[in-house]
Design brief:
With 92 residues, the chain is mainly β. It contains no helices and 6 strands. It has a 6-stranded antiparallel β-barrel.
């Protein structure tokens, strides 16, 4: 990987699996603080909490992603991406 670009692939980001539903083969990736992608595992090995995943993690649709923790590719569908907002402090 060279500066986040894997030769032969589109721009790749890295994210960490923070939630997994093995029954539904769904997971949530934290791509950067406050930014998340909902990913469905279509083919390949199982993924676990804490696994580091790389790929075009913001693009919806079918993609081949790479599990950096297990050194294996897998097929996935990115259903959505979302951003959370932190609680704001208020002063009285």
């Amino acid at each position: 990987m060279i500066d986040g670009l894997r030769v032969g692939y589109a721009w790749h980001m890295k994210g960490t699996i923070i939630a997994v539903s093995l029954q539904h083969r769904m997971s949530i990736l934290e791509v950067e603080p406050g930014m998340y992608s909902v990913v469905e595992l279509v083919g390949g090995d199982e993924i676990e909490l804490g696994d580091v995943i790389s790929g075009d993690l913001y693009a919806r649709g079918h993609h081949t992603l790479f599990n950096e923790s297990r050194h294996r590719s897998f097929l996935a569908v990115i259903h959505t991406t979302c951003q959370t907002t932190g609680a704001q402090e208020t002063s009285s």
